[in-house]
């Protein structure tokens, strides 16, 4: 069955190269006037120390991880709230920072993520097994609030061999999921692939 163009950001799959699959979430400040951040969005550290949404074209050295939620004192609710997204309009008391949580993509642990391939940025060509080992950037898209959840719209962009790109293709989703699972049709665009952060800035093949 042909894939559909329904990106969901980067979804945690497991851990590569580690004895234990457990690790703590990282956390740090997001500015009160931050752009909206959605669950599954890559996030990076700005020069001023704040964590903000990933910008396509940024070097992987600034990648800190994949956004997984945030805590703040809500100006609307007048209490501390936890949520899977940070709203585009500031909701913090006295313009305080958000406490942002993320799956870390630094250090010795290399988490694996499932992500939609964006069809070589044109939507016409699926990623293939020959693309394993290549590097790629991310098209962020615009996330959506569905119910109480704010889900990412990020997807993988055109593959390359550039060492500074943030992610490296590790495999096809069809190698992990049963046949017929959405995203496993490697003959049509928008198939799903497995990636890890390119933290060692390896050149793609």
Please give a structural write-up.
With 205 residues, the chain is mainly β. It folds into two domains: 11-16 and 109-197, no CATH class; 26-104, no CATH class. 2% of the residues lie in helices and 40% in strands. The chain contains one helix and 16 strands. The chain has one helix at 119-123; strands at residues 11-16, 26-30, 37-38, 42-45, 51-53, 63-74, 79-83, 85-86, 98-104, 110-116, 135-139, 144-146, 149-151, 155-160, 167-172, 192-197. The strands form four sheets. It has a six-stranded antiparallel β-sheet. Strands 2, 4, 5, 6, 7 and 9 form a six-stranded antiparallel β-sheet that branches. A two-stranded antiparallel ribbon has the order 3-8. A hairpin with a 4-residue loop joins strand 6 and strand 7. The longest helix has 5 residues, at 119-123. It is globular. The model has no long low-confidence stretch (mean pLDDT 89).
- Report the span from N to C terminus: 29 Å
Number of domains: 2
> Biggest sheet, open or closed, and with what strands and sense?
6 strands, antiparallel
Strand order of the largest sheet: 1-10-16-15-11-14
Helix content: under 10%
Helical stretch tally: 1
Compressed to H and E, one letter per element, the order equals: EEEEEEEEEEHEEEEEE
Q: What would you call the structural class?
A: mainly beta
Tertiary shape: globular
- Unreliable stretches, pLDDT < 50, 5 or more residues? none
Tally the beta strands.
Answer: 16
What value does the Rg take, in angstroms? Answer: 17 Å
């Amino acid at each position: 069955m042909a894939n559909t163009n329904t990106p969901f950001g980067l979804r945690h799959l497991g851990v590569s190269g580690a004895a234990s699959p457990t690790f703590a979430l990282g956390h740090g400040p997001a500015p009160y006037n931050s752009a909206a951040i959605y669950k599954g969005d890559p996030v990076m550290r700005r020069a001023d120390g704040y964590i903000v949404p990933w910008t396509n074209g940024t070097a992987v050295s600034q990648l800190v991880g994949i956004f997984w939620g945030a805590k703040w004192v809500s100006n609307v609710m007048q209490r501390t709230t936890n949520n899977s997204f940070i709203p585009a309009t500031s909701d913090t008391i006295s313009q305080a920072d958000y406490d942002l949580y993320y799956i870390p993509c630094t250090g010795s642990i290399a988490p694996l993520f499932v992500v939609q391939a964006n069809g070589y940025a044109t939507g016409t060509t699926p990623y293939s097994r020959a693309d394993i080992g290549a590097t790629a950037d991310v098209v962020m898209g615009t996330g959506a609030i569905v119910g109480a959840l704010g889900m990412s719209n990020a997807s993988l962009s055109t593959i390359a061999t550039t060492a500074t790109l943030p992610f490296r293709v590790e495999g096809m989703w069809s190698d992990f999921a049963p046949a017929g699972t959405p995203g496993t049709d490697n003959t049509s665009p928008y198939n799903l692939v497995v990636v890890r952060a390119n933290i060692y800035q390896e050149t793609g093949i």
